[in-house]
Amino acid sequence: MLSGSAMLHASNNMPFASNILVEQGVKELQGRLPPGWYLSDVQIEESRGSGIDVATLHAPSGQAGRIAFETRTRLVPKDVAGLVEYVHARALQVQAALIVVAPYLSESTRARLREREVGYLDLTGNARIIVPEPGLFIETQGATEDPDLENRLARSLRGLKAGRIVRALIDRKQPPGVRELAALTGLDAGYVSRVLAFLDQEALITRVGHGRVQSVDWPALLRHWARDAPLESRGNVQAYLEPRGLSSLVKRLAAVERYAVTGSLAANVFAPVAPPRLATIWILNVPEAATRLSLRLVETGANVLLIEPGDEGVFVGATNQQGFCCAAPSQVAADLLTSPGRGPAEGEELISWMQAHDEDWRR
Fold this sequence. Notes:
The termini are far apart. The chain has helices spanning 4-13, 16-32, 80-93, 107-115, 149-153, 160-171, 178-185, 189-201, 218-228, 246-252, 263-270, 286-292, 329-337, 343-356; strands at 38-47, 50-58, 64-71, 97-102, 119-122, 127-131, 136-140, 205-207, 213-216, 235-241, 259-262, 279-283, 296-297, 304-309, 319-321, 324-326. The strands form 4 sheets. The protein has a 7-stranded mixed sheet with strand order 1-2-3-4-5-6-7, with helices on both faces. It has a 5-stranded mixed sheet with strand order 11-12-14-10-13. Strand 5 and strand 6 (127-131) form a beta hairpin. The chain is of the alpha+beta class. It is built from 14 helices and 16 strands. It folds into 3 domains: 4-140, Trna Endonuclease, Chain: A, domain 1, CATH 3.40.1350.10; 156-228, Arc Repressor Mutant, subunit A (Orthogonal Bundle), CATH 1.10.10; 231-360, Beta Polymerase, domain 2. Helices cover 40% and strands 23% of the residues.
């Protein structure tokens, strides 16, 4: 187990915040170890001219391995590659498995650590730890949002205005600048700048210095937006039944002034997977539209979802397809990723189609 002298040694050789994080990280990890496993001998070892915190992991069989702890009070996706390049070689030099410890690691940050096969542990319970010798694998889920409210509010694509910026970045081959984005979306340039700064730190865009957007990782951006702003958070959803089937519904859509079909019915236009069983439609004034379309309000068994959007940006880029007005592919994919049933799988299929047919949908 951890000795008092080991902790004292750590505290005498590290900045205070790092010392506390190592101590808390070791405690968290110890609490997740299987019965009979334990950690000992936490100490700083020299590697490439600088120290790295290493602990010994003991298995019930008597075998032992080593874990190197790298602490960060805050780690954003953009900084993961540089961190791993800097630290991983040092961990290998002292023959230890690397674990990054932080108060909180976002899903995007954790994904990038997984891509580089680096372990992590945050103090909310998110953990993925692999130690080949003596053979340990731990994976647990913790908080999905930063408990620090100040950080959380500054690090999200939640909100209707953010969606307009996301769509504008995804739908254009040439990334627009701040002023162009502000003009395209009708948003304040200061707000646009703050969103771009967030996207930059999340490694969803690359910029020239802190200025012009050079490129957009649009699949990752689309998935991130869907996760931060799920479908039900972007409008008022009401479920209905069209007893005569979806083909009958499509024929009557002309009776509605402004709408955009999304979800499975729209995805089937671009990347058919299976006959759609649910029609999801962005539409203004849902009660009036439901009356015009002769739909029956139901609590179960619905085959139509009408959504009154919180922001009319959902209609941007909509086109006539197969006799009805279809939302832009980027909007459809984002909506599907958090839709019920097979929606998420259809969303991924649509993203694959979009990647293979870039010329067909980006302007």
